[in-house]
TrEMBL record:
It comes from Aeromicrobium choanae. This is GIY-YIG domain-containing protein. SUPFAM superfamilies: P-loop containing nucleoside triphosphate hydrolases. Residues 28-100 form the GIY-YIG domain.
Length: 581
């Protein structure tokens, strides 16, 4: 592959006209370009760059832009340019040096010839643009590991994600004319991009509030969808509900950093229910974590009762309805992003029967959408089911994941050291564990929570955006601080709340070793009780989440010796230290 070059000049009619005459490729070859001003940047791709930039000069926003930078390469084609354009938009949005003027386009995340080699070149292009003052001082890996990059709405959707977005928009369009309001359910395994779809939709709908600018804006996703008239969704009031505190705080920061999304509130179900005006669209991420009433909610139990009585006067005790009912009552178009197998607290989370009924209802209403393609893990689509089946000893043979760094450890010290090494190499590598140890350090700051074979460790010191906190590498994250996040590498400790029962010849739940405060209690207020077998399913759900956080690899240590021996045959051992690169 030959090298690229970057041409730059003033963003003016005269300068663009002069530049167009210098080479045929300037108006007849696939290129990617960035146009920047003191505070704003626009990124585009075109096979007719000079012509397109003349159009940009007619935009009402042209006065915000001063200089253009065009990336030229003899080997570029349309697919490469679409990929590079999206990549640079995400980097600019994550860098926060400029306000990104782009709206979402209709590009797809598609493979193409020699993509890996081109992706290597993208790194050099980033460095060259940074040398020209277009990026701040952060390294590329810092930007790529940031929440603003990973949770960016500026993504090329997979085909299944694009189909999901098109289907949702079509349903909303139809519902605006028929006044039918039933939940839209988007179901997906870990790593299929439920949050990506939610954030993308929020930005797309928010963008439609602004007048389309043909001189600058590309054809938007919605305007390219025949089934959807943008006018029908242009004025919808949008809210984004996230039940989990950690992920909610992270998404708030993401939304605040992106124009259009900064007007979309990221809220709790309580806040949605108490909003007097209500919403047209409520997107609910991790909707399986919406709550039912429980006296163990402590300070929120009276608030829960009050909301139920206000929204549903027939609910005299204020305990019958769930937060799912609130979402349905306070929005015209509830869009629920969920995975029924990621419910982890039986007492507090929506009951499995409610989620099952919700999915069945959505199927009947033709409002059920399935996400299939695995986006997070390099292990691919087989990995999620494999790792759960192996953990529960329902797997009958071992599968090798060639492109995925999967390891099974006998030495917890070695696993932790390897996670430290991966973090030094690529960043965003963390230790995670099931809730098999009490959170002693929450009150006794200097007392370790977890002790295994002489290794003492602390639980996460914060429950807000822990993964990106300064001390996260030295700590161990739990389900509540890791669900919904991506890591490069995850070191997962399977705690002593799971063990192998030789008599029963099965994996069993050990209640006395489980310390999630609301994870194993009975819901006395609603008369719900849970057997050890019931709770086993929820704990397996916990590990289903933890074992699917790693993009590049997952390292596993099992505390129970008998269970460790049973699981060993399904996972490769770490390489010998002398052979480690």
């Amino acid at each position: 592959m030959t090298g690229f070059k970057i041409k730059r000049d003033r963003f003016s009619h005269d300068a663009v006209a002069h530049w167009a005459k210098l080479e045929v490729a300037h108006d007849d070859w696939p290129v990617v370009y960035a146009i920047d001003g003191s505070d704003h940047v626009y990124i585009g791709e075109s096979v007719n760059a000079a012509t397109r930039m003349r159009q940009h000069l007619d935009s009402p926003k042209a006065h915000l832009l001063d200089r253009f930078h065009v990336v030229l390469d003899d080997t570029f084609n349309k697919s490469v340019c679409l990929d590079l354009e999206t990549y640079l938009i995400r980097l600019f949005a994550a860098d926060q040096r400029f306000t990104v003027l782009n709206k979402q386009t209709n590009s797809r995340n598609s493979n193409y010839y020699d993509r890996a080699q081109y992706r290597t070149r993208f790194t050099a292009i980033f460095e060259a643009l940074r040398d020209q003052g277009l990026f701040d001082t952060k390294r590329l890996d810092e930007l790529e590991n940031s929440n603003l990059f990973k949770l960016s709405p500026f993504v090329s959707l997979t085909q299944t994600q694009a189909v999901a977005v098109e289907a949702i928009l079509a349903i909303v369009q139809e519902s605006t004319s028929t006044n039918i309001s039933e939940p839209i359910v988007v179901q997906g395994d870990p790593g299929t991009g439920k949050t990506v779809v939610g954030v993308f939709l929020a930005k797309l709908l928010a963008d439609l509030h602004d007048t389309f600018d043909p001189a600058l804006d590309e054809e938007t996703f919605a305007e390219d969808t025949d089934a959807v008239a943008p006018a029908a969704v242009r004025t919808l009031r949008i809210g984004f509900v996230v039940p989990q505190q950690s992920l909610r705080n992270t998404l708030k920061k993401v939304f605040e950093g992106i124009p259009a999304l900064d007007s979309v509130p990221v809220i709790t179900a309580f806040e949605a229910a108490e909003d007097e005006a209500g919403f047209d669209v409520l997107l609910v991420d991790e909707a399986h974590r919406l709550q039912q009433f429980s006296g163990a909610l402590q300070t929120n139990s009276s608030r829960f009762r009050r909301i139920n009585r206000e929204l549903f006067p027939d609910d005299l005790e204020g305990t019958v309805h769930t937060q799912l009912d609130w979402i349905r009552a306070k929005s015209r178009f509830p869009i629920l992003l969920l995975d029924a197998k990621q419910s982890v607290r039986p007492m507090a989370d929506l009951p499995a029967s409610v989620v099952a009924d919700l999915i069945d209802e959505a199927r009947v209403q033709e409002r059920f959408i399935r996400l299939w393609t695995q986006m997070r893990s390099l292990a691919g689509d087989e990995y999620v089911d494999y790792v759960v089946n192996a953990l529960t000893l329902h797997q009958d043979h071992r599968i090798e994941f060639v492109d995925y760094d999967l390891r099974f450890y006998d030495d917890i010290h070695r696993m932790r050291q390897d996670i430290f090494e991966r973090d030094a190499e690529v960043g965003l590598s963390r230790m995670l564990a099931g809730f098999a140890w009490p959170w002693v350090s929450k009150k006794q700051k200097h007392t370790p929570d977890i002790s295994i074979d002489g290794l003492s460790m602390f639980w996460n010191r914060t429950d807000k955006d822990w993964i990106n906190s300064p001390t996260a590498l030295e700590e161990v994250g739990c389900i509540h601080t890791s669900q919904g996040y991506d890591l490069n590498y995850a070191g997962v400790i399977i705690g002593p709340e799971l063990s192998w029962d030789e008599t029963r010849q099965s994996v069993v739940f050990v209640r006395q070793n489980y310390h999630d405060r609301n994870g194993a209690k009975n819901n006395v207020a609603l008369g719900q009780s849970y057997t050890d077998d019931d709770l086993l399913d929820y704990v397996v759900n916990v590990y289903r989440v933890l074992l699917t956080r790693g993009i590049r690899g997952t390292y596993i240590y099992v505390c129970d010796p008998a269970l460790r021996e049973k699981l060993r045959r399904f996972f490769p051992s770490p390489p010998h230290p002398l052979l480690h690169p």
